[in-house]
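Quick one - inputs below.
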Amino acid sequence: MTEGTLNGLVSLDQRNRVTAIDHRVYTDAAVYSAEMAKIFSGPAWIFLGLEQEVLRPGEFLTTYMGEVPVLIARDDDNTLRIFENVCTHRGAMVERHAHGCTRTFRCLYHNWSFGLNGALTGVPKPDSYGESFCKEDYPLPSAGRVEVFAGLIFASRDPKVPSVPDYLGDLGPIIADTMRWGKVELLGRHRSVIDANWKLFFENTVDAYHAENLHRPLKNYVVDNANYAFPNGHGLIRRLATAQEMAKIEARKGIAHDSTLIVGDQRTLGVFPNLLMLGSPSRPVIIIRQLIPKGRNRLELVVYYASPAGLSASEKERAAREICSLFGPSGAVSVDDAEAMQAVQRAAVAHYSKTILTRGLNASPGTAESSSGELSLRGFYEMWATCMGLAG
Amino acid sequence: MSNKDVAFAGEAVEIHLRKQAVLDHLYRVCEAIDNFDCETWADGFSDDCQYRMIPRENYDRGLPLCLIDDDRAGLLQRVKLITELWQYEPFRETRQLSNVVVTSPSEGTATAKATIAVYRTSSEGESSLHMVARIEDNLVNLGDRGWKIKERLVILESFKVHNNIVLPA
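Output:
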Protein backbone atom coordinates (compact mmCIF):
# COMPACT_ATOMS: atom_id res chain seq x y z
CA MET A 1 0.00 0.00 0.00
CA THR A 2 1.33 3.49 -0.76
CA GLU A 3 0.17 6.90 0.26
CA GLY A 4 -3.04 7.92 -1.38
CA THR A 5 -6.49 6.51 -1.44
CA LEU A 6 -7.45 2.90 -1.96
CA ASN A 7 -9.82 3.19 -4.86
CA GLY A 8 -11.00 6.42 -3.28
CA LEU A 9 -12.40 4.70 -0.20
CA VAL A 10 -9.53 4.52 2.26
CA SER A 11 -6.90 7.24 2.68
CA LEU A 12 -3.38 6.42 3.81
CA ASP A 13 -0.52 8.58 5.03
CA GLN A 14 3.13 8.18 4.03
CA ARG A 15 3.52 5.43 6.58
CA ASN A 16 0.63 3.41 5.16
CA ARG A 17 -1.59 4.17 8.12
CA VAL A 18 -5.31 4.61 7.52
CA THR A 19 -6.22 8.23 8.17
CA ALA A 20 -9.64 8.66 6.57
CA ILE A 21 -12.59 6.66 5.25
CA ASP A 22 -14.98 7.77 2.53
CA HIS A 23 -18.59 7.22 3.53
CA ARG A 24 -19.33 5.42 0.32
CA VAL A 25 -18.25 2.43 2.39
CA TYR A 26 -21.61 2.79 4.15
CA THR A 27 -23.78 3.64 1.15
CA ASP A 28 -22.40 2.04 -2.01
CA ALA A 29 -24.17 -1.10 -3.26
CA ALA A 30 -21.04 -2.44 -4.96
CA VAL A 31 -19.07 -2.10 -1.74
CA TYR A 32 -21.75 -4.00 0.15
CA SER A 33 -21.86 -6.86 -2.38
CA ALA A 34 -18.08 -7.08 -2.31
CA GLU A 35 -18.14 -7.24 1.51
CA MET A 36 -20.55 -10.18 1.46
CA ALA A 37 -18.26 -12.04 -0.93
CA LYS A 38 -14.83 -10.99 0.28
CA ILE A 39 -15.34 -10.71 4.03
CA PHE A 40 -18.35 -12.76 5.08
CA SER A 41 -17.39 -15.51 2.65
CA GLY A 42 -13.74 -14.58 2.76
CA PRO A 43 -10.54 -15.00 4.79
CA ALA A 44 -12.14 -14.23 8.12
CA TRP A 45 -13.89 -16.08 10.91
CA ILE A 46 -17.56 -15.11 11.28
CA PHE A 47 -19.09 -15.29 14.75
CA LEU A 48 -22.37 -17.22 14.77
CA GLY A 49 -23.42 -17.99 18.33
CA LEU A 50 -22.70 -19.63 21.63
CA GLU A 51 -21.64 -23.23 21.98
CA GLN A 52 -24.01 -23.37 24.96
CA GLU A 53 -26.96 -23.59 22.56
CA VAL A 54 -25.62 -26.61 20.65
CA LEU A 55 -23.91 -28.66 23.35
CA ARG A 56 -25.59 -32.03 22.88
CA PRO A 57 -26.04 -34.25 19.80
CA GLY A 58 -29.21 -33.24 18.00
CA GLU A 59 -29.09 -29.62 19.12
CA PHE A 60 -29.07 -26.97 16.43
CA LEU A 61 -29.32 -23.25 15.85
CA THR A 62 -30.05 -21.17 12.76
CA THR A 63 -28.55 -17.80 12.01
CA TYR A 64 -26.93 -15.80 9.20
CA MET A 65 -23.39 -15.74 7.90
CA GLY A 66 -23.39 -12.39 6.17
CA GLU A 67 -26.77 -12.61 4.48
CA VAL A 68 -26.70 -16.37 3.95
CA PRO A 69 -28.99 -18.41 6.20
CA VAL A 70 -27.05 -21.14 7.93
CA LEU A 71 -27.81 -24.10 10.16
CA ILE A 72 -25.37 -25.28 12.82
CA ALA A 73 -25.95 -28.73 14.27
CA ARG A 74 -24.22 -31.14 16.60
CA ASP A 75 -23.97 -34.61 15.11
CA ASP A 76 -24.24 -37.90 17.00
CA ASP A 77 -20.45 -38.22 17.01
CA ASN A 78 -20.30 -34.79 18.70
CA THR A 79 -19.03 -33.01 15.60
CA LEU A 80 -20.34 -29.50 15.11
CA ARG A 81 -21.26 -28.81 11.48
CA ILE A 82 -22.44 -25.81 9.52
CA PHE A 83 -24.71 -26.00 6.49
CA GLU A 84 -26.42 -23.53 4.25
CA ASN A 85 -30.01 -23.66 5.44
CA VAL A 86 -31.35 -24.52 1.99
CA CYS A 87 -33.02 -27.60 0.57
CA THR A 88 -31.11 -29.15 -2.30
CA HIS A 89 -34.36 -29.86 -4.14
CA ARG A 90 -35.97 -26.47 -4.77
CA GLY A 91 -34.06 -24.18 -2.40
CA ALA A 92 -36.57 -23.68 0.41
CA MET A 93 -35.23 -22.76 3.83
CA VAL A 94 -35.23 -26.08 5.65
CA GLU A 95 -35.05 -25.36 9.38
CA ARG A 96 -37.11 -22.35 10.42
CA HIS A 97 -36.73 -22.52 14.21
CA ALA A 98 -34.06 -20.37 15.85
CA HIS A 99 -32.85 -23.35 17.89
CA GLY A 100 -33.96 -26.75 19.06
CA CYS A 101 -33.18 -30.44 19.21
CA THR A 102 -33.99 -32.94 16.50
CA ARG A 103 -32.90 -36.11 14.67
CA THR A 104 -33.98 -34.89 11.24
CA PHE A 105 -34.24 -31.65 9.35
CA ARG A 106 -37.32 -31.83 7.16
CA CYS A 107 -38.16 -29.47 4.33
CA LEU A 108 -41.81 -28.42 4.49
CA TYR A 109 -42.27 -28.29 0.74
CA HIS A 110 -41.78 -31.89 -0.49
CA ASN A 111 -40.71 -33.59 2.74
CA TRP A 112 -37.09 -34.10 1.79
CA SER A 113 -35.28 -35.03 5.03
CA PHE A 114 -31.70 -34.53 6.12
CA GLY A 115 -29.72 -36.05 8.98
CA LEU A 116 -27.62 -34.23 11.56
CA ASN A 117 -24.59 -34.74 9.32
CA GLY A 118 -26.46 -33.11 6.41
CA ALA A 119 -26.99 -36.35 4.49
CA LEU A 120 -30.18 -36.57 2.44
CA THR A 121 -32.01 -39.41 4.13
CA GLY A 122 -35.57 -39.17 2.87
CA VAL A 123 -37.04 -38.47 -0.57
CA PRO A 124 -40.75 -39.22 -1.14
CA LYS A 125 -41.46 -41.18 -4.36
CA PRO A 126 -37.82 -41.36 -5.51
CA ASP A 127 -38.65 -43.58 -8.53
CA SER A 128 -39.66 -40.54 -10.57
CA TYR A 129 -36.00 -39.51 -10.66
CA GLY A 130 -34.90 -42.66 -12.42
CA GLU A 131 -31.98 -44.93 -11.59
CA SER A 132 -29.23 -42.33 -11.86
CA PHE A 133 -30.55 -40.40 -8.90
CA CYS A 134 -28.21 -40.70 -5.91
CA LYS A 135 -29.18 -39.28 -2.50
CA GLU A 136 -25.45 -38.93 -1.75
CA ASP A 137 -25.29 -36.19 -4.38
CA TYR A 138 -27.73 -33.93 -2.56
CA PRO A 139 -26.70 -33.36 1.05
CA LEU A 140 -27.31 -30.03 2.77
CA PRO A 141 -24.59 -27.79 1.30
CA SER A 142 -21.69 -27.17 3.62
CA ALA A 143 -21.11 -23.55 4.63
CA GLY A 144 -17.44 -24.07 5.44
CA ARG A 145 -15.42 -24.89 8.52
CA VAL A 146 -16.68 -24.41 12.03
CA GLU A 147 -14.50 -23.93 15.10
CA VAL A 148 -15.35 -23.29 18.72
CA PHE A 149 -13.09 -21.03 20.79
CA ALA A 150 -13.83 -20.28 24.45
CA GLY A 151 -17.49 -21.19 23.95
CA LEU A 152 -17.83 -19.02 20.83
CA ILE A 153 -18.82 -20.57 17.48
CA PHE A 154 -16.95 -19.29 14.42
CA ALA A 155 -17.24 -20.35 10.80
CA SER A 156 -15.33 -19.57 7.65
CA ARG A 157 -15.79 -20.41 3.99
CA ASP A 158 -12.12 -19.88 3.28
CA PRO A 159 -10.22 -23.17 3.46
CA LYS A 160 -6.93 -21.26 3.76
CA VAL A 161 -7.75 -19.09 6.76
CA PRO A 162 -5.59 -20.07 9.79
CA SER A 163 -7.18 -21.59 12.90
CA VAL A 164 -9.21 -19.32 15.16
CA PRO A 165 -6.46 -19.05 17.83
CA ASP A 166 -3.98 -17.99 15.13
CA TYR A 167 -6.52 -15.58 13.66
CA LEU A 168 -7.09 -13.98 17.07
CA GLY A 169 -3.42 -13.78 17.97
CA ASP A 170 -2.69 -12.03 21.28
CA LEU A 171 -6.36 -11.12 21.67
CA GLY A 172 -7.21 -14.83 21.96
CA PRO A 173 -6.11 -15.36 25.59
CA ILE A 174 -7.87 -12.11 26.60
CA ILE A 175 -11.11 -13.36 25.01
CA ALA A 176 -10.74 -16.79 26.60
CA ASP A 177 -10.18 -15.22 29.98
CA THR A 178 -13.17 -12.89 29.59
CA MET A 179 -15.33 -15.84 28.48
CA ARG A 180 -14.16 -18.01 31.40
CA TRP A 181 -12.90 -20.42 28.74
CA GLY A 182 -16.46 -21.09 27.63
CA LYS A 183 -17.79 -22.13 31.04
CA VAL A 184 -20.76 -19.81 30.89
CA GLU A 185 -24.54 -19.95 31.05
CA LEU A 186 -27.03 -17.89 29.10
CA LEU A 187 -28.99 -15.21 30.97
CA GLY A 188 -30.88 -14.27 27.81
CA ARG A 189 -30.66 -12.38 24.52
CA HIS A 190 -31.44 -8.92 23.28
CA ARG A 191 -32.22 -8.56 19.60
CA SER A 192 -32.44 -5.33 17.70
CA VAL A 193 -32.15 -3.82 14.28
CA ILE A 194 -30.47 -0.46 13.78
CA ASP A 195 -30.81 1.79 10.72
CA ALA A 196 -27.08 1.95 10.08
CA ASN A 197 -24.38 0.12 8.16
CA TRP A 198 -22.91 -2.88 10.01
CA LYS A 199 -19.42 -1.36 10.18
CA LEU A 200 -20.73 1.59 12.19
CA PHE A 201 -21.59 -0.76 15.02
CA PHE A 202 -18.10 -2.28 15.16
CA GLU A 203 -16.62 1.21 15.08
CA ASN A 204 -18.90 2.42 17.85
CA THR A 205 -18.00 -0.41 20.22
CA VAL A 206 -14.21 -0.04 19.84
CA ASP A 207 -14.36 3.76 20.03
CA ALA A 208 -13.38 5.04 23.49
CA TYR A 209 -13.59 8.74 22.54
CA HIS A 210 -17.38 8.93 22.47
CA ALA A 211 -17.99 7.43 25.92
CA GLU A 212 -17.97 10.63 27.97
CA ASN A 213 -19.35 12.78 25.13
CA LEU A 214 -22.30 10.81 23.75
CA HIS A 215 -23.19 9.03 26.98
CA ARG A 216 -24.09 11.77 29.44
CA PRO A 217 -24.79 9.22 32.21
CA LEU A 218 -21.11 8.29 32.01
CA LYS A 219 -19.80 11.84 32.23
CA ASN A 220 -18.22 11.48 35.66
CA TYR A 221 -17.28 7.86 35.32
CA VAL A 222 -14.89 7.71 32.40
CA VAL A 223 -11.30 6.88 33.22
CA ASP A 224 -8.28 6.70 31.00
CA ASN A 225 -8.14 3.68 28.77
CA ALA A 226 -5.63 1.72 26.73
CA ASN A 227 -6.35 1.21 23.01
CA TYR A 228 -5.04 -1.63 20.90
CA ALA A 229 -5.16 -2.77 17.31
CA PHE A 230 -4.34 -6.39 16.60
CA PRO A 231 -3.42 -8.05 13.30
CA ASN A 232 -6.44 -9.20 11.30
CA GLY A 233 -8.52 -6.17 12.24
CA HIS A 234 -9.33 -6.87 15.88
CA GLY A 235 -9.45 -4.12 18.50
CA LEU A 236 -9.46 -3.72 22.26
CA ILE A 237 -10.09 -1.02 24.84
CA ARG A 238 -8.96 -1.64 28.39
CA ARG A 239 -9.55 0.62 31.39
CA LEU A 240 -6.46 2.14 33.07
CA ALA A 241 -7.93 3.55 36.28
CA THR A 242 -5.69 3.76 39.31
CA ALA A 243 -6.90 2.37 42.61
CA GLN A 244 -7.57 5.91 43.87
CA GLU A 245 -9.62 6.78 40.79
CA MET A 246 -11.59 3.58 41.19
CA ALA A 247 -12.29 4.38 44.84
CA LYS A 248 -13.47 7.90 43.95
CA ILE A 249 -15.73 6.62 41.20
CA GLU A 250 -17.17 3.83 43.25
CA ALA A 251 -18.04 6.31 45.99
CA ARG A 252 -20.33 8.21 43.63
CA LYS A 253 -24.00 7.43 43.34
CA GLY A 254 -25.83 7.60 40.09
CA ILE A 255 -26.84 5.81 36.96
CA ALA A 256 -23.42 4.39 36.26
CA HIS A 257 -22.72 3.43 39.84
CA ASP A 258 -21.82 -0.22 39.95
CA SER A 259 -21.26 0.10 36.24
CA THR A 260 -19.54 -2.73 34.49
CA LEU A 261 -17.75 -0.12 32.45
CA ILE A 262 -15.62 1.17 35.26
CA VAL A 263 -14.83 -1.75 37.53
CA GLY A 264 -11.41 -3.27 37.30
CA ASP A 265 -9.97 -4.56 34.04
CA GLN A 266 -13.02 -3.98 31.89
CA ARG A 267 -12.37 -5.22 28.33
CA THR A 268 -14.28 -3.92 25.33
CA LEU A 269 -13.16 -5.73 22.19
CA GLY A 270 -13.98 -6.48 18.59
CA VAL A 271 -13.09 -9.50 16.48
CA PHE A 272 -13.14 -8.70 12.76
CA PRO A 273 -15.62 -8.65 11.20
CA ASN A 274 -18.70 -9.22 13.38
CA LEU A 275 -18.05 -10.09 17.04
CA LEU A 276 -18.03 -7.50 19.82
CA MET A 277 -17.62 -8.30 23.49
CA LEU A 278 -17.70 -6.50 26.83
CA GLY A 279 -16.66 -8.16 30.05
CA SER A 280 -14.30 -8.34 32.97
CA PRO A 281 -12.97 -11.20 35.09
CA SER A 282 -14.47 -9.50 38.14
CA ARG A 283 -18.01 -8.91 36.82
CA PRO A 284 -20.83 -11.48 36.53
CA VAL A 285 -22.05 -10.64 33.02
CA ILE A 286 -20.27 -11.03 29.67
CA ILE A 287 -21.93 -9.26 26.76
CA ILE A 288 -21.38 -10.98 23.41
CA ARG A 289 -22.69 -9.21 20.32
CA GLN A 290 -23.21 -10.86 16.95
CA LEU A 291 -23.43 -8.37 14.06
CA ILE A 292 -25.52 -9.40 11.06
CA PRO A 293 -25.52 -7.11 8.01
CA LYS A 294 -28.94 -6.57 6.40
CA GLY A 295 -28.30 -4.41 3.37
CA ARG A 296 -26.25 -1.22 3.26
CA ASN A 297 -28.49 0.74 5.63
CA ARG A 298 -29.39 -1.79 8.26
CA LEU A 299 -27.70 -4.01 10.81
CA GLU A 300 -29.12 -6.66 13.06
CA LEU A 301 -27.80 -7.53 16.47
CA VAL A 302 -28.11 -10.70 18.43
CA VAL A 303 -26.66 -9.94 21.84
CA TYR A 304 -26.00 -12.81 24.23
CA TYR A 305 -25.67 -12.05 27.93
CA ALA A 306 -23.75 -14.81 29.66
CA SER A 307 -22.79 -15.42 33.27
CA PRO A 308 -19.96 -17.60 34.57
CA ALA A 309 -21.24 -21.13 35.18
CA GLY A 310 -22.41 -21.92 38.68
CA LEU A 311 -24.28 -18.79 39.77
CA SER A 312 -27.46 -19.35 41.74
CA ALA A 313 -30.81 -18.43 40.23
CA SER A 314 -31.06 -15.30 42.40
CA GLU A 315 -27.48 -14.27 41.55
CA LYS A 316 -28.35 -14.61 37.86
CA GLU A 317 -31.50 -12.55 38.29
CA ARG A 318 -29.55 -9.86 40.06
CA ALA A 319 -26.80 -9.86 37.42
CA ALA A 320 -29.44 -9.67 34.66
CA ARG A 321 -31.24 -6.80 36.41
CA GLU A 322 -28.07 -4.74 36.81
CA ILE A 323 -26.82 -5.23 33.28
CA CYS A 324 -30.05 -4.27 31.53
CA SER A 325 -30.14 -0.88 33.22
CA LEU A 326 -27.00 0.05 31.25
CA PHE A 327 -27.09 -2.10 28.14
CA GLY A 328 -29.63 -3.31 25.63
CA PRO A 329 -32.12 -1.35 23.53
CA SER A 330 -33.44 0.46 26.59
CA GLY A 331 -30.14 0.65 28.46
CA ALA A 332 -28.71 3.93 29.68
CA VAL A 333 -25.70 3.60 27.37
CA SER A 334 -27.01 1.74 24.33
CA VAL A 335 -29.94 4.07 23.58
CA ASP A 336 -27.54 6.85 22.58
CA ASP A 337 -25.28 4.53 20.57
CA ALA A 338 -28.22 3.65 18.31
CA GLU A 339 -28.96 7.37 17.84
CA ALA A 340 -25.35 8.18 16.89
CA MET A 341 -25.07 5.38 14.35
CA GLN A 342 -28.34 6.38 12.70
CA ALA A 343 -27.16 9.99 12.56
CA VAL A 344 -24.03 8.97 10.63
CA GLN A 345 -25.93 6.74 8.19
CA ARG A 346 -28.49 9.44 7.47
CA ALA A 347 -25.85 11.99 6.52
CA ALA A 348 -23.58 9.52 4.75
CA VAL A 349 -24.90 10.47 1.32
CA ALA A 350 -23.76 14.06 1.69
CA HIS A 351 -21.14 15.18 -0.81
CA TYR A 352 -18.79 15.85 2.08
CA SER A 353 -18.89 12.62 3.93
CA LYS A 354 -15.90 11.04 5.46
CA THR A 355 -14.47 9.85 8.70
CA ILE A 356 -11.09 11.10 9.87
CA LEU A 357 -9.24 8.56 11.98
CA THR A 358 -6.13 10.33 13.28
CA ARG A 359 -6.60 10.23 17.05
CA GLY A 360 -3.57 8.66 18.69
CA LEU A 361 -1.92 8.22 15.30
CA ASN A 362 1.53 8.15 16.85
CA ALA A 363 0.58 6.42 20.08
CA SER A 364 1.85 2.96 20.81
CA PRO A 365 -0.85 0.41 21.56
CA GLY A 366 -1.71 0.02 25.22
CA THR A 367 -0.04 3.24 26.38
CA ALA A 368 -1.52 6.23 28.15
CA GLU A 369 -1.11 8.16 24.87
CA SER A 370 -3.48 5.73 23.22
CA SER A 371 -6.30 6.74 25.58
CA SER A 372 -9.45 7.72 23.63
CA GLY A 373 -7.48 7.06 20.46
CA GLU A 374 -8.65 5.48 17.22
CA LEU A 375 -6.12 2.65 16.95
CA SER A 376 -8.81 -0.04 16.88
CA LEU A 377 -10.77 1.74 14.15
CA ARG A 378 -7.69 2.15 11.94
CA GLY A 379 -6.87 -1.53 12.45
CA PHE A 380 -10.40 -2.52 11.45
CA TYR A 381 -10.16 -0.63 8.16
CA GLU A 382 -6.68 -1.95 7.41
CA MET A 383 -8.07 -5.48 7.50
CA TRP A 384 -11.18 -4.36 5.65
CA ALA A 385 -9.06 -2.92 2.83
CA THR A 386 -6.97 -6.09 2.67
CA CYS A 387 -10.01 -8.38 2.45
CA MET A 388 -11.63 -6.14 -0.13
CA GLY A 389 -8.52 -6.41 -2.27
CA LEU A 390 -8.18 -2.67 -2.57
CA ALA A 391 -4.99 -1.81 -4.37
CA GLY A 392 -2.74 1.07 -3.30
CA MET B 1 -86.93 -6.69 44.08
CA SER B 2 -85.86 -8.12 47.41
CA ASN B 3 -83.21 -6.52 49.60
CA LYS B 4 -80.89 -9.33 48.58
CA ASP B 5 -81.33 -8.46 44.90
CA VAL B 6 -80.61 -4.80 45.58
CA ALA B 7 -77.49 -5.68 47.58
CA PHE B 8 -76.30 -7.99 44.77
CA ALA B 9 -76.93 -5.32 42.14
CA GLY B 10 -75.14 -2.74 44.28
CA GLU B 11 -72.12 -4.97 44.67
CA ALA B 12 -72.02 -5.59 40.92
CA VAL B 13 -72.15 -1.86 40.25
CA GLU B 14 -69.38 -1.27 42.77
CA ILE B 15 -67.15 -3.87 41.11
CA HIS B 16 -67.90 -2.42 37.72
CA LEU B 17 -67.02 1.08 38.88
CA ARG B 18 -63.82 -0.21 40.41
CA LYS B 19 -62.85 -1.89 37.13
CA GLN B 20 -63.66 1.29 35.24
CA ALA B 21 -61.48 3.30 37.64
CA VAL B 22 -58.58 0.89 37.01
CA LEU B 23 -59.09 1.20 33.28
CA ASP B 24 -59.16 4.98 33.52
CA HIS B 25 -55.93 4.87 35.47
CA LEU B 26 -54.23 2.73 32.82
CA TYR B 27 -55.37 5.12 30.09
CA ARG B 28 -54.07 8.13 32.04
CA VAL B 29 -50.68 6.45 32.48
CA CYS B 30 -50.52 5.86 28.70
CA GLU B 31 -51.53 9.44 27.99
CA ALA B 32 -48.88 10.80 30.36
CA ILE B 33 -45.97 8.95 28.78
CA ASP B 34 -47.24 9.77 25.28
CA ASN B 35 -46.99 13.42 26.28
CA PHE B 36 -43.54 13.00 27.86
CA ASP B 37 -45.15 13.95 31.19
CA CYS B 38 -42.83 11.65 33.09
CA GLU B 39 -43.73 12.98 36.53
CA THR B 40 -47.38 12.07 36.10
CA TRP B 41 -46.37 8.78 34.52
CA ALA B 42 -44.11 7.81 37.44
CA ASP B 43 -46.84 8.88 39.84
CA GLY B 44 -49.01 6.17 38.32
CA PHE B 45 -46.83 3.59 40.07
CA SER B 46 -46.70 2.78 43.77
CA ASP B 47 -43.68 3.56 45.96
CA ASP B 48 -42.76 -0.12 46.15
CA CYS B 49 -43.32 -0.71 42.44
CA GLN B 50 -41.47 -3.02 40.05
CA TYR B 51 -41.50 -2.46 36.30
CA ARG B 52 -40.25 -5.28 34.11
CA MET B 53 -40.15 -5.45 30.32
CA ILE B 54 -38.94 -8.79 28.99
CA PRO B 55 -38.46 -9.97 25.40
CA ARG B 56 -40.99 -12.63 24.43
CA GLU B 57 -38.20 -15.09 23.53
CA ASN B 58 -36.57 -14.83 26.98
CA TYR B 59 -39.94 -15.06 28.73
CA ASP B 60 -40.88 -18.23 26.84
CA ARG B 61 -37.49 -19.81 27.48
CA GLY B 62 -37.63 -19.01 31.21
CA LEU B 63 -34.51 -16.84 30.95
CA PRO B 64 -34.15 -13.94 33.42
CA LEU B 65 -32.80 -11.19 31.14
CA CYS B 66 -35.16 -8.24 30.78
CA LEU B 67 -34.97 -5.05 28.76
CA ILE B 68 -36.15 -2.99 31.73
CA ASP B 69 -36.15 -4.18 35.34
CA ASP B 70 -36.70 -1.12 37.52
CA ASP B 71 -37.81 -0.57 41.08
CA ARG B 72 -39.03 2.93 41.93
CA ALA B 73 -35.48 4.29 42.12
CA GLY B 74 -34.72 2.76 38.73
CA LEU B 75 -37.92 4.23 37.32
CA LEU B 76 -36.90 7.70 38.49
CA GLN B 77 -33.41 7.19 37.00
CA ARG B 78 -35.12 6.32 33.75
CA VAL B 79 -37.18 9.51 33.95
CA LYS B 80 -33.93 11.46 34.32
CA LEU B 81 -32.50 9.68 31.27
CA ILE B 82 -35.61 10.52 29.25
CA THR B 83 -35.89 14.14 30.33
CA GLU B 84 -32.25 15.20 30.71
CA LEU B 85 -29.57 12.78 29.63
CA TRP B 86 -30.44 10.78 26.52
CA GLN B 87 -29.74 12.43 23.15
CA TYR B 88 -32.56 11.05 21.04
CA GLU B 89 -33.97 12.65 17.95
CA PRO B 90 -37.39 14.22 18.66
CA PHE B 91 -40.36 11.95 18.11
CA ARG B 92 -43.90 11.39 19.29
CA GLU B 93 -45.45 8.15 20.45
CA THR B 94 -49.06 7.07 20.47
CA ARG B 95 -50.07 4.24 22.76
CA GLN B 96 -53.09 2.14 21.98
CA LEU B 97 -54.22 0.05 24.95
CA SER B 98 -56.79 -2.61 24.16
CA ASN B 99 -58.15 -6.05 25.03
CA VAL B 100 -58.16 -4.99 28.68
CA VAL B 101 -59.41 -7.54 31.20
CA VAL B 102 -59.60 -6.26 34.78
CA THR B 103 -60.28 -8.44 37.79
CA SER B 104 -60.60 -7.13 41.28
CA PRO B 105 -60.05 -9.73 43.97
CA SER B 106 -60.62 -7.15 46.72
CA GLU B 107 -61.53 -3.51 47.24
CA GLY B 108 -57.91 -2.52 47.44
CA THR B 109 -56.35 -4.69 44.71
CA ALA B 110 -56.82 -5.36 41.02
CA THR B 111 -55.12 -7.12 38.15
CA ALA B 112 -55.23 -5.99 34.57
CA LYS B 113 -54.14 -7.80 31.45
CA ALA B 114 -54.03 -5.89 28.22
CA THR B 115 -52.46 -5.49 24.83
CA ILE B 116 -50.51 -2.37 23.98
CA ALA B 117 -49.38 -1.11 20.60
CA VAL B 118 -46.97 1.82 20.53
CA TYR B 119 -46.75 3.85 17.35
CA ARG B 120 -43.75 6.09 16.68
CA THR B 121 -44.01 9.24 14.62
CA SER B 122 -40.70 10.76 13.53
CA SER B 123 -39.96 14.47 13.53
CA GLU B 124 -40.67 14.30 9.80
CA GLY B 125 -44.15 12.96 10.42
CA GLU B 126 -43.65 9.32 9.44
CA SER B 127 -45.53 6.87 11.62
CA SER B 128 -44.74 3.23 12.18
CA LEU B 129 -45.46 0.51 14.68
CA HIS B 130 -42.66 0.58 17.22
CA MET B 131 -43.71 -2.08 19.72
CA VAL B 132 -46.49 -4.46 20.48
CA ALA B 133 -46.67 -6.13 23.86
CA ARG B 134 -48.79 -7.89 26.46
CA ILE B 135 -49.17 -6.08 29.76
CA GLU B 136 -49.86 -7.80 33.07
CA ASP B 137 -50.41 -5.41 35.97
CA ASN B 138 -51.04 -5.79 39.67
CA LEU B 139 -52.55 -2.60 41.06
CA VAL B 140 -53.29 -1.31 44.55
CA ASN B 141 -55.85 1.24 45.65
CA LEU B 142 -54.29 3.86 47.92
CA GLY B 143 -57.56 5.52 48.88
CA ASP B 144 -57.41 9.25 48.15
CA ARG B 145 -54.24 8.75 46.10
CA GLY B 146 -56.21 6.45 43.84
CA TRP B 147 -55.05 3.37 41.99
CA LYS B 148 -51.33 2.75 41.46
CA ILE B 149 -49.51 0.09 39.47
CA LYS B 150 -47.53 -1.99 41.94
CA GLU B 151 -46.14 -4.53 39.48
CA ARG B 152 -46.07 -4.21 35.73
CA LEU B 153 -44.83 -7.01 33.50
CA VAL B 154 -44.54 -6.12 29.83
CA ILE B 155 -43.93 -9.09 27.57
CA LEU B 156 -42.52 -7.55 24.42
CA GLU B 157 -43.78 -9.41 21.36
CA SER B 158 -41.59 -7.16 19.18
CA PHE B 159 -38.41 -8.59 20.65
CA LYS B 160 -36.39 -7.57 17.61
CA VAL B 161 -36.40 -3.94 18.76
CA HIS B 162 -36.23 -1.23 16.13
CA ASN B 163 -33.26 0.99 17.08
CA ASN B 164 -34.05 1.60 20.75
CA ILE B 165 -36.74 1.95 23.40
CA VAL B 166 -36.73 5.45 24.87
CA LEU B 167 -40.19 5.50 26.49
CA PRO B 168 -41.29 2.37 28.33
CA ALA B 169 -44.51 0.72 27.19
